[in-house]
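ok trying this again, last paste got cut off
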Amino acid sequence: MKKIIVTTALLAFTFFYSQKNQNYLEISYGSVCCGPPSDKPVLSFLKEFKNKSRVKSLEILQQKGRGREGEFTLYVGTDYLTKNQKSRLIRGLTATVSNQNNSKKNQSTGTVFFDSATVVSQSDLTDVKNLTIYKK
């Protein structure tokens, strides 16, 4: 009986406190007519940032199904980053998103939106549908 109670308590603790971050940066992918742009430039930057900054893990959440053409949003956790790492992350994301938007081949390609001043809290994400941990 004690083993069942301890196991249940452990699983409940793990389930309720599995989300590590409380604050997230929001990167939205919008569409004009032909689907959203690729997420490869941003994800390549995040992978490179993680390796260069020696961050153990970078929590990335993805919200799919935001529109008819496959619009989606990425949320990047920032709580376990130092101030210097966070400012470098924001500068890099701003540059990456700007480069991606400026290098569009045609105007029918979607746009990437990133506002460094907008911070989404975990409480804002509790009611979001189709939110999953990003894995690739």
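PB: full thing came through this time. The CA atoms of residues 35 and 69 lie 5 Å apart.
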